[in-house]
Specification:
single chain; 201 residues; alpha/beta; Uracil-DNA Glycosylase, subunit E; four-stranded parallel beta sheet; 10 helices; 43% helix; globular; disordered C terminus
């Protein structure tokens, strides 16, 4: 874990993040040599920043429900890593939060992922994560990218954001719950199985 602490210190001393560091705000992410899954979201919200706990809001509650795991499992396991597109709360916009800063994920994700050799699936939540990791492989919009999730497996699994603001989207797209969530839950279940347990195919 020493390497991850060293990277954290590098992030905090980066001039890009100086305004946060001088206020005592630390980068919010989780990395582990034992991680099998990485969750890539947008950026921490205000509550996450204040409590220093990622996905600590109604969106997180829904995400855990989608994954089929408890809050305790979600936070305690080292099998699940969390690398948002920005490790700091970017602030409030007129509608929602300010987008993650450009260049942040490009600078810090590769060095963190390089140290997590056991990663099997990267879960891409929302447009920013999908456009960064999938690039030109994205479909014409988020809905179609998520609908065609099977073509990105097993390396990537694109998801819509679990925000309460997307309840209308979920009602209009029942295939998400029927087709995508069972795959997500199996990936999570397999990832949390003890080492040595034969995985289902």
């Amino acid at each position: 874990m020493i390497i991850f602490e060293e990277i954290k210190q590098e992030i905090m001393t980066d001039p890009m993040n100086e305004s946060y560091t001088v206020k005592g705000i630390q980068p919010l992410f989780k990395a582990s040599k034992d991680a099998r899954i990485v969750i890539v979201g947008q950026a921490p919200g205000r509550k996450a920043e204040e409590t220093h706990l990622f996905w600590n809001d109604p969106s997180g509650d829904r995400l855990r429900e989608w994954m089929g795991i408890s809050r305790e499992e979600f936070y305690k396991t080292n099998r699940i890593a969390h690398l948002p597109m920005d490790f700091y709360y970017p602030g409030k916009a007129k509608t929602g939060d300010v987008p993650p800063r450009k260049g942040f994920a490009e600078k810090w994700h590769p060095c963190l992922l390089e140290e997590m050799a056991k990663i099997e699936t990267i879960i891409l939540i929302g447009n920013y994560a999908q456009k960064y990791y999938l690039g030109k492989r994205c479909e014409k919009n988020l809905t179609e990218t998520v609908r065609n999730f099977e073509k990105y497996l097993p390396k990537y699994l694109p998801l819509v954001h679990p925000s309460p603001l997307n309840l209308g989207w979920l009602k209009r797209n029942p295939w998400f719950e029927n087709d995508v969530l069972p795959v997500l839950r199996k990936i999570v279940k397999d990832c949390l199985e003890p080492d040595g347990t034969e995985r289902r195919t």
